[in-house]
TrEMBL record:
Entry keyword Transmembrane: yes
Protein's UniProt name: FecR protein domain-containing protein
Chain ranges of the Protein FecR C-terminal domain: 257-324
Keywords: Membrane, Transmembrane, Transmembrane helix
InterPro entries named in the record: FecR, FecR_C, Ferrdict_sens_TM
A Pfam family of this chain: FecR_C
TM segment ranges: 82-100
Organism: Chitinophaga flava
MF terms (GO), sorted A to Z: sigma factor antagonist activity
Length: 327
């Protein structure tokens, strides 16, 4: 099926202008997770396309979720699913939005030039920053920093998603990671941060050294010690500290899926993104359910089976969509 350009543009316009219904936002959220940008037939760099997809996804997942789509929305979802076969138009649509968005930002920030590193594959990406510090970015993650300001008084980066940091010690230039409501400051250490848009918590886990975590809204601080994890609730703006195993960081860098009391809804979002799945389920089925576990890289069917089995759920596939129901 060839994509209908005016219809696609109309949907994107209404979404970005805040005129889309809650059901349409939910439909688009599920669809965009499953779009594979690697199929793009365009000269634009894959990393740029991936950054565009992530920005659109983050904008959508920060919107409230709803439950059962309306009939009209189901028809739109069916159309979008069929368009996945015509991959070229999708990256171009994302790119058009991305450039317009960036142009708007650039008018406000003409003097600042940012370096953006987005994970283009569904696997872990290792990068080295200008100061020699190393970062491992998980799937669906992005790191940004100002090119001409990074190496001055403070080495500041912004993280979206999950990243493990090994920071080069420099007493004169602290290293700061900004992630939504909190800032994590270090001098030289190894730590992990999970800060996915749409999820309820930000998590900072310290492997070695020391870090100071600050809530930018309340201006309160806490100091983490090795093998401790801070869990910050975005809703209540409260945090707690719990024990943490460094093996979990080692395993996700090797491609494992690591969940620590993570809501099942968030787990399904991560699976959908990693494996390019289109998932359909009633939100009431997964409400108040969480997952803790270490899942080695495997076929998506095996991983999903293991996760759903815990909660007495099952799945079937139909026309490329995975439907989850009670066992």
């Amino acid at each position: 099926m060839e994509p209908n350009y005016p219809m696609l543009k109309d949907m994107l316009d209404r979404l970005f202008e805040g005129e889309a219904s809650e059901q349409e936002k939910e439909m688009f959220r599920q669809w965009i997770i499953s779009v594979d940008m690697s199929d793009a037939d365009t000269a634009v760099a894959a990393e740029t396309l991936q950054a565009a997809k992530q920005e659109m996804f983050y904008r959508i997942v920060e919107m409230p979720r709803n439950t059962k789509p309306e009939t009209r929305v189901r028809k739109m979802l069916k159309t979008l699913t069929m368009w996945k076969a015509a991959a070229a138009i999708i990256p171009l649509a994302f790119l058009s939005w991305f450039l317009l968005n960036r142009m708007g930002k650039s008018r406000q920030q003409q003097e600042i030039h940012y370096t953006t590193i987005a994970v283009t594959e569904k696997n872990v990406k290792h990068i080295t920053l200008p100061d020699g510090s190393e970062v491992w970015l998980n799937a669906r993650s992005r790191l940004e920093y100002a090119q001409d300001r990074f190496s001055k008084d403070v080495r500041c980066v912004r993280l979206t998603g999950e990243g493990y940091f090994e920071i080069v010690k420099d007493d004169t230039r602290p290293f700061v990671v900004a992630s939504e409501n909190i800032e994590t400051q270090v001098l030289g250490t190894g730590f992990n941060i999970e800060t996915y848009p749409g999820e309820t918590e930000i998590r900072v886990a310290l492997v070695h050294g020391a870090v100071s975590v600050k809530d930018i809204h309340t201006n309160t601080h806490t100091l983490l010690h090795p093998m401790e994890m801070l869990r910050y609730s975005k809703g209540s703006r409260k945090w707690g500290v719990a024990p943490f195993s460094s093996n979990k960081v080692h395993n996700w860098v090797q491609g494992h899926l690591i969940f620590e009391e993570l809501p099942l809804t968030d787990v399904l979002d991560r699976l959908a993104y990693k494996y390019g799945l289109s998932l359909q389920y009633d939100r009431e089925l997964v409400k108040h359910k969480s997952v803790t576990g270490d899942f080695a890289p495997d076929k998506w069917q095996t991983v999903l089976d293991n996760i759903l089995f815990i909660h007495k759920l099952k799945y079937i596939t139909k026309n490329g969509t995975v439907y989850i129901s009670k066992r």
